[in-house]
């Protein structure tokens, strides 16, 4: 059977890296490759209490079809939480989605025609590129440094005709970097002046190790910013629950598109999450996640310091789940990965995170799912591999 | 803020009927408008047992990210169930989706380019038209009668260049009709001969009141048919759990597209549903749903017989949730709806279910969520309204 695939489907290629990374599920591999939160933080007990309550008190609405916009009382809760930060959010401005990933798909459908200009960071979140690319945009990579994108490079020529800028200001996936307040303000000023839509993807905003928060882009340019939030990193990703906050005109279009995409996000998971968060659970829970992740981040930074040869650079994240490593330019992290897998350690090469002009000598390390002792051992193996490649020898040293 | 909407987003119009139908949520309205299953059939106790077990024994995998293809053991269970019907299904041919609606979106993305020919029944499921239309196909409505589409009208000229035929052979939404075996065989022969993909949407197949099943299109043309199944009508729609069965090459593309759409369907709901169905729960449960729906279908048929004036026609479904009513040609069911709402009874006008050339004198009645006594009263009001419109008087009779 020859399927009559669409142009967008024909353009899809299968990922070689995905195939390589399949082995990382084997327990003897120390994997820094996952983008997974730590299962140690999953609220199992709160889930037990909440599911019992939902099935005792709200079974009919939890099991029936629901509104495409999402559960009314959860929209109200989210609106109230965000309104506390100063920039008011009305419940009508909140749309629940099946994970933040779905929000990216809905926004792409609403705003991208073939050839539309879309501005992205350098590098940026791979899942967003996958969602947007199905709608065939022309990407423009905005110059960025260790602190994030450089607003001054967003000249009128770059912005001209852009459908939106996609930004992750807090502890970006893949780099872990955070955009400083002054750049947020500069970016928001550009958005307001040029009516440039900004998609602010913010799954990691709560994970500042000091419990601080910089002003969101949304609070600085409420009309132009489409804010994406998620319960994946503060509760559990297996619930697939995220949300969009934007002005009513955009939400109205997204609701129609959402209805065609999956009618609505599961009523059951929305009811359960509402029961958990409306009891104030996150106030105590998020600090626990922060403490755990901060400790593991420190363990990885210490291990990198100890085991990486000269010429390797990395950033020092203030929150989130990732560290970004830049190897000497002569090295290719995809080649390194094949070697690393043999030594039972894994990471994600950086190249796929670039919309244009991939930098082959970069890689992403995730530290949150690995115990500190294993973090040290994994980084030790990586450091030895890098040193060996820099030294030009390709023999396999014994693992002692 | 002027949003730079895509062409597809600009083409979206808000539904006037949806606005009218919002009042049907008021408890004093007898609503035959919903496409909802009866909440009386929801497996609340089984859900309680299953959620408890999942959170005690599989909490980590139920709350963590999972594979885009879906939960392995649930794919195996579905494959085994379908294999019993004779045409073997392998687990690799099963993709779990966030409700069947998502399957429609994924298939549209995989197979439709702007202007692609898509064949649909007359009338057809509105939600499918909504999903497909975002990808800008050219619809061709295939001639149909009270028993479904007429295979002999699928000439080579009609099929030429078609990306797929979308069909609902069992108790179709909106008409409730079922395609006879001889037509299924004729259709499958055409699919095999011309390599015409057929999307077989089958959410109601288990709801035959006699517990019978006609051969699926998939079993008759396994290579060409993309089969869609759902737990919405046999367990609960609020779980948003459906699946696609198709050959490996198509599934591989759909998995990539699914990953961009929402990463994966919630792990938690998949685990819970697996616990329920793997215990054999559906064997006892589905007959209960059939009995309830058959009884309510009979109640509505009897009421139509008693209260509808001459010149009104309807079908006699052998399963499912819907009856399709054809009024005399002089009447417009959308106008009738406005009157009906005043008399506190609701239905869905038939026009939106046509991809081309809407028939304004048709309407869909759903009987499954209404008690028999209320069914009779609702149909009585409707019959009186129709009689009044046929009689040419527009006065509001008192409701006694």
Automatic annotation (TrEMBL), chains A, B:
Pfam families per record: Aminotran_1_2
Keywords: Aminotransferase, Pyridoxal phosphate, Transferase
GO MF term list: pyridoxal phosphate binding; transaminase activity
Domain Aminotransferase class I/classII large span(s) in chain numbering: 39-382
GO biological process, one term: alpha-amino acid metabolic process
InterPro entries hit by this protein: Aminotransferase_I/II_large (IPR004839), Class-I_PLP-dep_aminotransf (IPR050859), PyrdxlP-dep_Trfase (IPR015424), PyrdxlP-dep_Trfase_major (IPR015421), PyrdxlP-dep_Trfase_small (IPR015422)
Cofactor requirements of the protein: pyridoxal 5'-phosphate
Family matches, as SUPFAM superfamilies: PLP-dependent transferases
PANTHER family per UniProt: AMINOTRANSFERASE, KYNURENINE_ALPHA-AMINOADIPATE AMINOTRANSFERASE, MITOCHONDRIAL
Similarity comment: family membership: Belongs to the class-I pyridoxal-phosphate-dependent aminotransferase family.
Quaternary structure, from the entry: Homodimer.
Name by which UniProt lists this protein: Aminotransferase class I/classII large domain-containing protein
Gene source species: Litchfieldella anticariensis (strain DSM 16096 / CECT 5854 / CIP 108499 / LMG 22089 / FP35) (Halomonas anticariensis)
């Amino acid at each position: 059977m020859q399927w009559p695939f669409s142009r967008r489907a024909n353009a899809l290629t299968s990922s070689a890296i995905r195939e390589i990374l399949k082995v990382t599920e084997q327990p003897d591999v120390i994997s820094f490759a996952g983008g997974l939160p730590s299962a140690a933080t999953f609220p199992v007990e709160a889930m037990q209490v909440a599911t019992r309550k939902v099935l005792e008190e709200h079974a009919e609405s939890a099991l029936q079809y629901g509104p495409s916009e999402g559960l009314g009382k959860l929209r109200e809760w989210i609106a109230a939480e965000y309104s506390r930060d100063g920039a008011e959010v009305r419940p009508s401005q909140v749309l629940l989605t099946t994970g933040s990933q779905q929000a990216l798909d809905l926004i792409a459908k609403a705003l991208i025609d073939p050839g539309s200009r879309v501005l992205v960071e350098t590098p940026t979140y791979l899942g967003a590129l996958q969602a947007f690319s199905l709608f065939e945009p022309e990407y423009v990579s905005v110059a960025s440094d260790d602190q994030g994108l450089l607003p001054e490079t967003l000249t009128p020529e770059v912005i001209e005709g852009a459908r939106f800028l996609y930004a992750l200001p807090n502890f970006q996936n893949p780099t872990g970097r955070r955009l400083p307040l002054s750049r947020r303000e500069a970016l928001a000023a550009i958005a307001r002046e040029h009516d440039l839509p900004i998609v602010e993807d913010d799954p990691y905003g709560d994970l500042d190790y000091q419990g601080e928060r910089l002003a969101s882009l949304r609070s600085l340019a409420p009309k132009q910013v489409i804010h994406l939030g998620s319960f994946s990193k503060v509760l559990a990703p297996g619930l697939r629950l995220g949300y969009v906050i934007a002005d009513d005109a955009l939400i109205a279009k997204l609701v129609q598109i959402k209805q065609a995409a999956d009618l609505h996000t599961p009523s059951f998971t929305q009811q359960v999450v509402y029961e958990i968060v409306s009891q104030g659970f996150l106030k105590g829970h998020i600090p626990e996640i922060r403490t755990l992740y901060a400790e593991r981040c420190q363990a990885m930074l210490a291990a990198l310091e100890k085991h990486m040869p000269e010429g390797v650079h990395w950033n020092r994240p203030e929150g989130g789940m990732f560290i970004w490593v830049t190897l000497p330019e002569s090295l290719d992290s995809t080649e390194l990965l094949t070697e690393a897998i043999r030594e039972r350690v894994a990471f994600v090469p950086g190249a796929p995170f670039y919309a244009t002009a991939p930098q082959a000598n970069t890689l992403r390390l995730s530290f949150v799912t690995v115990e500190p002792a294993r973090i040290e051992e994994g980084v030790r193996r990586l450091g030895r591999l890098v040193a060996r490649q820099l030294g030009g020898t390709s023999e396999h040293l014994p693992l002692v």
